[in-house]
Amino acid sequence: xxxxxxxxxxxxxxxxxxxxxxxxxxxxxxxxxxxxxxxxxxxxxxxxxxxxxxxxxxxxxxxxxxxxxxxxxxxxxxxxxxxxxxxxxxxxxxxxxxxxxxxxxxxxxxxxxxxxxxxxxxxxxxxxxxxxxxxxxxxxxxxxxxxxxxxxxxxxxxxxxxxxxxxxxxxxxxxxxxxxxxxxxxxxxxxxxxxxxxxxxxxxxxxxxxxxxxxxxxxxxxxxxxxxxxxxxxxxxxxxxxxxxxxxxx
Length: 250
Description:
Elements: H1 7-20, H2 33-54, H3 56-77, H4 88-98, H5 109-124, E1 132-133, E2 143-145, E3 150-154, E4 173-179, E5 185-190, H6 192-203, H7 208-219, H8 224-241, E6 244-248
Antiparallel strand pairs: 1-6, 2-6, 3-4, 4-5
Helix pairs in contact: 2-3, 4-5, 6-7, 7-8
């Protein structure tokens, strides 16, 4: 049998339980009730401010009452494993994906939250690109991709969801999210084939033509040379958009 906690730790546990669920658990003996209410609300409102800022669309589509309730249950039930405030949105996404939430909510809400959170991660991504040159044959050299690039696949059209559009049926959706040269976060709708090509390019030490040939074989395309011709045009488009930065410098 484990030893009992010291009195000060019992006090801390009771204090924390009340802060997380002020309507369900009593505050510790000896604490002023009014001061405790003010403190509890300050902490919740601070957490809520980060969620409001990161998930504005989620907040709008489920309404103020539903959003407040969801924030409260997240605050009460989900462990915050990091002391960094910027990790709160990530924890919230994990909560929507993994927790047994009793509150009714749209089937697409966790994907929408993930989509909104990705904007924050891309905006803060400190990754730096390898040395590259914008002038060069895009087919005959390894390429350098934007280091902030995220390739996303969802079951729902998350980029369209808002107060005026709530999908009733899933629709496979593929997106690219990245920072452009002006440090602005960009969202581009694409397809599974383009996402797979970018995956091959990111891991390849060979020419992009070889990656295109491999993709043609994987997809069962009957005319590889035509596929490479189409792929060359796609690579130029991705270069113009800032998804591809250029050919790898020697």
